[in-house]
Design brief:
The structure is a homodimer of 331-residue chains.
Chain A (H helix, E strand, L loop, with lengths): L4 H8 L7 H13 L6 H8 L4 E6 L5 H16 L3 E6 L4 H13 L4 E4 L9 H8 L4 E4 L10 E4 L1 H14 L5 E5 L5 H16 L9 E3 L5 H12 L7 E4 L2 H13 L9 E3 L16 E3 L2 H17 L8 E4 L2 E3 L13
Parallel strand pairs in A: 1-2, 1-3, 3-4, 4-5, 5-11, 6-7, 6-8, 8-9
Antiparallel strand pairs in A: 10-12
Chain A binds a DNA duplex (16 and 16 nucleotides) through helix 1 and helix 3.
Chain lengths: 331, 331
DNA sequence: GTGAAAGCGCTAACAT
DNA sequence: ATGTTAGCGCTTTCAC
């Protein structure tokens, strides 16, 4: 009849050292009283919380939402719960988030750094505590870290090459903050594609948008159209900035894609809702999220990893109306 | 020199019963060894986790992202951490989310129900455990619950009235699942506005989209344009469905807003990126999120509340190009 | 196969 | 103003 606490614990945890009969008895009783295990107590005793923390700059916008979905799926499968924090592109919040997550005893942290993050002191602290740290998508240049990124260079190269194939020759680039790997790589890919076509790189055609929003995209485009020799195409490192550029062109009666071709980045949902629909780069965020979590799991297993791990995911170009001057495109 | 654990605890918690000198000493030592309090231990001992759970159908899309921002702001101010769960519009996930949150010992749950939620058994379980439960935006019809909602009826009335003022007379409605309060209220507001103008309600003009997406909006519009007497305006309970409608009209060469006027709901970011820009309802999600958290706090204080509390937030109509047939609008 | 008991890190009586 | 100690709910040795 009566059973000791340890017996109950064993039954609930499928411990082999218990008879099927008593296990059944316990399970029924538990269901009857609507028993809920207390994760805090379990975590405290076991010394592991089964929690991972995720820090993203923001959660609206398709990319990070999708990444989170991927992380959650993988985490659920491994019996982990996920705590999501938004840094709001503010390094101060990011530091607070780290603090919060460490206090919550997360077993690992997955982070995509904010735009305003320039030093990595708060991340060092995480490592120092022995909490596995995985960066995804955005990371600080010049830091050797565990990371899952997409091949931004290849994406920049492919987008620019696509525009060149469509016959555009004076291609501008809306660039992001260069201390972030991904904006730098997109710019480098763009430059490399021009060079591969034997075209000179004209610095006038590179406009830095920080942050990359509709507003900064508008400003950049206003500037570009007033150039003595304005561009006939734009490759933007962000769909948002590209949307701003499109607005400016529309207002000035410039036809897209006949007069100016456009290609963006992130495959935001609105890219299929504008006129014309915007060509963009799909980053396969869900896959990226899953990989990031898997990497965390691996780091957790091997206490002493063999140096920083880097995983690269191949993006794919979604060609839509905004960049198709010719009938079709077979790239 | 040496100090007891309780002394340290007191210093860290700003207990008055400790000298300023020792407090300082402890704080310095804590900083030196990079001390992090263990929330699980504190929570276990105190019997409170300082955690709230939030369940939303999804996190992409502007509305819920903004609501979450509001909740987080209010929670942070009250010293709470937030666990965000996505139900993915699936009641099965929703039940799992509830389970997860209860195990995590959250002190309250804020939820916006999924589309597939029809019964409230899993929510009853939450109440039964004495965990305060607050619904926001979406709730099940016919359940008396604590909730913060927007005045969907007023919004439906205002949107439809605005279209009428612009001279549209055959106004269709893209409606959502009627077991959810908000879609029902939007429909009722629409009907009431027609009636107030002395116009008959034509059931042919009401198209149910479930779920309300670009695809279902397209289908609905295809059907509407083929009516013997097609509509000259559309009020949609979702911007997504409206975007689908706009695409269909565009493809058929129907001019918006001259031939057909459009008004949507939720003020999604893409409403300013389409051509024409879409009129929509701003729901003030951040405010809604803050109110929802405040309501939770109040429920937590008074163990026995005086019946279900309901808070209503007034939305506001954002008039843009898609609904302006006349020169201007002063509603 | 089952029970007794220690202890995870912390707080809050209750001493002193 | 500081120290001592019990115990939050659970798991896990260790003993039987």
């Amino acid at each position: 009849m009566g059973l000791s606490v340890s017996g109950v614990s064993r039954a609930l945890n499928n411990d082999p050292r218990i008879s099927a009969a008593t296990k059944k008895r316990v399970l029924e009783a538990a269901a009857a009283i609507n028993y809920q295990p207390n994760n805090m107590a379990t975590g405290l005793r076991r010394g592991k919380s089964k929690l991972v923390g995720v820090i993203v700059p923001f959660v609206d916008g398709r990319f990070f939402a999708v990444v989170i979905k991927g992380i959650e799926r993988a985490a659920r499968a491994a019996g982990f719960n996920v705590i999501i924090c938004q840094s709001d592109e503010d390094v101060v919040h990011e530091r607070q988030n780290i603090e919060t997550l460490l206090q919550s005893q997360v077993e690992g942290i997955l982070v995509s750094v904010s735009l305003t993050t320039r030093d990595a002191a708060h991340f060092a602290k995480v490592q120092q505590r022995g909490v596995p740290l995985v960066f995804f998508d955005r990371l600080l240049r010049g830091h050797e870290v565990n990371a899952v990124v997409i091949d931004d260079y290849a994406a920049g190269f492919a987008s620019t090459t696509h525009l060149l194939q469509q016959g555009y020759r004076r291609i501008a680039h809306l660039a992001g903050a260069q201390h972030l790997n991904l904006y730098q790589q997109r710019l480098l890919g763009y430059k490399a594609a021009l060079q591969a076509y034997g075209l000179p790189a004209d610095d006038c055609l590179i406009a830095y948008c920080e942050p990359m929003t509709l507003a900064t995209g508008r400003q950049a485009m206003e500037m570009l159209v007033q150039l003595p020799n304005p561009p006939d195409a734009v490759f933007s490192a962000s769909d948002w900035a590209l949307a701003g550029a499109l607005q400016v062109l529309e207002e000035r009666g410039v036809h897209v894609p006949l007069e100016v071709g456009l290609a963006g980045f992130s495959n935001e949902t609105f890219t299929t809702l504008t006129t014309p629909k915007l060509t963009s780069v799909e980053q396969h965020g869900e896959q990226l999220g899953e990989q990031a979590f898997q990497l965390f799991l691996r780091l957790r297993q091997h206490k002493t990893p063999a140096g920083p791990q880097q995983l690269v995911i191949e993006p794919s170009l979604q060609v839509r109306d905004s960049s198709q001057r010719l009938g079709k495109d077979t790239s």
